[in-house]
Specification:
Elements (H helix, E strand, L loop, with lengths): L3 E5 L6 E5 L40 E4 L4 E4 L2 E2 H7 L2 H10 L5 H12 L6 H8 L7 H15 L9 H26 L13 H10 L10 H13 L7 H10 L5 H13 L6 H12 L5 H9 L18 H17 L5 H13 L1 H5 L7 H10 L7 H21 L28
Antiparallel strand pairs: 1-2, 3-4, 4-5
Helix pairs in contact: 1-8, 2-17, 5-6, 5-10, 6-7, 6-17, 7-8, 8-13, 8-17, 9-10, 9-17, 10-17, 11-16, 13-16
Bound molecules: acetyl coenzyme *A (ACO).
């Protein structure tokens, strides 16, 4: 017998059988439940989508209680250990790890799209010297839709793939230009001899040397960080990408919107907040007093807790290991000792244990980025580069899903009922 939910409407005494599939009921099945003939039918109320699935997806799986994260079925730990960002991007986008030939073609396709139109440089020149690189990034990605009008051909598979190549390839270039702009250095052209992250480091940090040679350990560390941030199912920015894309706008405009959602401190900005917190604590001796304040409700332990993960965020474990590999090259970030002690104390404290608060991906990532020479303003931009493949994969999945339509939530209206216009003299 199929699983169903039996609902009794106490208003009418009627009973309804609603099918349950994949652990969900269809909200539209509730529309048949009416109090009388004029009733438009029952709807669900779910601010912040706490218990609403807006799509079916084959891309990323998370089990927040067990601390499991899979891309297309592959555990994040194995991908971080053995894969590269571009290989993982192929997996996320096409559903399978590439063969050697496929990886060669894919790498070629991305590498051949890293340059941006010279006018994009001019466009970026218009920003003030101290413009936030994330603001520059969002605006420039949005402006790309004017450079590539063929981006509007969203139902042409070949055109769609071209825009995807452009986005994955050019976001590092735009990010690097935004960074160089913010520190007043000339922009560096892409170097196609280098890997995806090696070239990114080149565009960020090359000075007068003829050929930039990325440090292999830092190049690999950045690649691992990009793998960890590549997708995370229906988070705020990905849901924005899907919702904006559902209007059938071009992917550059949709991705600018997704990046804007990421910019917010509740989403991509948390690692910046962790650094500020660690600096504020200042020394290991001050930790007990800080924890006491957090437990008294005076502020949060940033980088701890997650809406979905109720155990150790699997990405945080990998990042912690990567941190040591980076510090071997850069020297230890002096804030690391505070972070380690903070984590040790919090994980033994009943306040954090009972609320299932564990370190999340942002607890250690900022320490690594800072040690690598990135200013805090760049942290969200780095996140955006890595997440671009997740955004475009989810966007394409949405476009090809026959059940999807323009995203358009309902509301519960609480305003005035009809009333007559009042002339100015009578108000
Ligand atoms: N420090 C102290 N207490 C916390 C923390 C924290 N970091 N996070 C949650 N709590 C407490 C809450 O006060 C609440 O306690 P109560 O039951 O006594 O009222 C309980 O734990 C549940 O917290 P909620 O806010 O209801 O949990 P929610 O799922 O809505 O929040 C969030 C998740 C926003 C991530 C939260 O844990 C938080 O603010 N963490 C710090 C910010 C952070 O690190 N964000 C990055 C998330 S990862 C990412 O977006 C890439």
């Amino acid at each position: 017998m199929a699983n169903t939910l039996t609902i009794t409407d106490n208003r009418t005494g009627k009973q309804y059988e609603v099918p349950i599939a994949d652990g969900a009921i269809r909200a539209t099945d509730l529309k048949q439940i009416k109090s009388d003939a004029d009733d438009p039918g029952l709807i669900t109320y779910d601010p912040a989508f706490m218990a609403t699935a807006a799509c079916k997806s084959k891309i990323t799986f998370i089990d927040g209680d067990k601390g499991i994260l899979l891309y297309r079925g592959y555990p994040i730990e194995q991908l971080a250990e053995s894969s590269t960002y571009l290989e993982t991007a192929h997996l996320i986008l096409f559903g399978e790890l590439p063969t050697a030939a496929q990886l060669k073609t894919w790498t070629h396709d991305i590498t051949m799209h890293t340059m941006v139109h010279e006018n994009i440089k001019k466009f970026m020149e218009g920003f003030t010297y101290d413009a936030h690189p994330m603001g520059v990034f969002i605006s420039t990605v949005g402006a790309m839709s004017t450079f590539y009008p063929d981006g509007k051909l969203i139902f042409d598979q070949q055109s769609r793939m071209k825009q995807i190549h452009r986005l994955i390839a050019k976001t590092p270039t735009i990010a690097a230009y935004a960074f160089r702009h913010s520190i007043g250095r000339p922009y560096v052209y892409p170097d196609n001899d280098l890997s995806f992250t090696g070239n990114f480091l080149n565009m960020l940090f090359k000075m007068t040397e003829v050929k930039y040679k990325p440090n292999a350990a830092l190049e690999r560390a950045l690649d691992v960080l990009f793998i960890l941030h590549a997708d995370h199912e229906q988070n705020c920015s990905t849901s924005s990408m899907r919702a904006i894309g559902s209007s059938h706008v071009d992917p550059f405009s949709a991705l600018a919107g997704a990046a804007a959602a990421l910019y917010g401190p509740l989403h991509g900005g948390a690692n910046e907040a962790v650094l500020r917190m660690l600096k504020e604590i200042g020394s290991v001796d001050h930790i007990p007093a800080f924890i006491k304040k957090v437990k008294a409700g005076e502020g949060r332990l940033m980088g701890f807790g997650h809406r979905v993960y109720k155990s150790y965020d699997p990405r945080a474990k990998i990042i912690k290991r990567t941190a040591y590999e980076v510090f071997d090259v850069t020297g230890k970030n002096p804030l690391l000792d505070i972070a380690l002690e903070l984590e040790r104390i919090a994980l033994e404290d009943d306040y954090f244990i009972s609320r299932k608060l564990y370190p999340n991906v942002d607890f250690y990532s900022g320490l690594i980025y800072q040690a690598m020479g990135f200013p805090v303003e760049m942290f969200a931009v780095l996140f955006a580069i890595a997440r671009t493949v997740g955004w475009v994969a989810q966007w394409e999945e949405m476009l090809l899903d026959s059940e999807q339509k323009i995203a358009r939530p309902r509301q519960i209206y609480e305003g005035h009922t009809t009333r007559d216009y009042v002339p100015m003299a009578k108000r």
